[in-house]
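Suppose a colleague, Dr. K., hands you the sequence of a protein chain of 501 amino acids and asks what its three-dimensional shape might be. Before reaching for any lab equipment, you can write down a predicted structure in token form. Begin with the sequence itself:
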Amino acid sequence: MDRISRLIDRLVQYGVVTGMIDEFEVIYARNQLLDMMGEDEYIEADGEAPSVKEEDLEDILKGLLDIACEKGIIEDSIVYRDLFDTKLMNALVPRPSEVVRKFNSLYEKSPEAATDYFYKLSQDTDYIRRYRIKKDMRWSVKSEYGDIDISINLSKPEKDPKAIAAAKNAKQSGYPKCLLCIENVGYKGRVNHPARCNHRILPLTINDTAWGFQYSPYVYYNEHCILFNQEHIPMKIERATFIKLLDFVKQFPHYLIGSNADLPIVGGSILSHDHYQGGHYDFAMAKAEYESKFEIPGFEDVEAGIIKWPLSVIRIRCKDDKRLIDAADHILNKWKAYTDEEAFVFAETDGEKHNTITPIARKKGDSYELDLALRNNITTPQYPMGVYHPHDEYHHIKKENIGLIEVMGLAILPARLKDEISELKTAILNKTDLRATESLKSHADWAEEFIKNYDDINEENAMDIIKNEVGKVFVKVLEDAGVYKCTEEGRKAFKRFTDSL
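The predicted structure, expressed as tokens, is then:
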């Protein structure tokens, strides 16, 4: 009992140190935690309150979770542990209305002060698990398009077989309808839906409609936020998209915001719920310069051009957001109907539409800026996953859709690569047959080719070489996703489209 009391003391003190609770809520929070741990009594500690730091949270929760497993409160599985520790943390998290009031009060001082508060809170509550995010691998590689960011995401826990089986047998529920619905606030979770007891969402009005604002629990980049419609309606790229993106940028000028495309293959993972992603981060794409400029008839006041980027991106810029919206809508409508057989661009085949846009909005000085990445999801027998999708020879590194975040120049690579590149380093140094190792044979052609480019691969430089080569593959993946290639022929075809505007 004394062990439980001390762990509870430390967790409550963590709540005080982070500012989630004050001295008047200490006893209340303690009693909530005692109840969840199946305890009726509390043993008072001698002396002062324990000293607790932000980084102690993982160990404190582990201690309580271990006891919960010992007592049979939960099964010893990452899924059940995550469901339970989220419930524990909710004893410390301010009520939604309190969070909204504080955010709005800080917003009156500055939008940045408000988002700083909410981002810190989203981490302090353990909704964003800092200790897992730290495990992600991140590096950058130089390319002709600038420094490209690479990440291997390790913060999503792998489900164990027991939890997978339980999820398969679990009763299917339509509540919440998806991971982005507002009904996730405070939701206890289940084996096939993450717990959100410690989750808080801010209500925003965007284009005169009700939206929700939250951070991604996996923070792929700094202050990675999600803006979602409070209604569960599908993604759609249309004129209203540009209005909403720029409305958000007006309210939070220090943030960028963008939308995944609204078609399969070139779209994001959740097309069923209208949402955007933003944050406080300088993506490589934002730093890309104009490669060439052009005028759009009727929009001479809007700066327009093609930027030097592996995907086919038109950048438009104007101080007047309404003129920018009109120009973007004009480009979107032209692109959706555009066919150029010579360039293998088809607006539709057999009644299926193929052309759409991945838009990104930001404020630059006193001007508004939109980057419009032209996308096409056509498939062929040679490229059944998409002509403008990572091609087969790169699937050993990346075969998933190229969504908004990757379009902007940040690779989100699968967790398997952490072990695979480590094994690859060892195999290269030991001159092992890559094709004889199950986990490495998919990398054999690639590795055997790049090894030829280095006179000396040794213990000190091997991993840096492999990471750099992984980055080069990702650049090739982005080039695959470009409708118009960065070649003389590709640029001529791109110009045919811009001339049609």
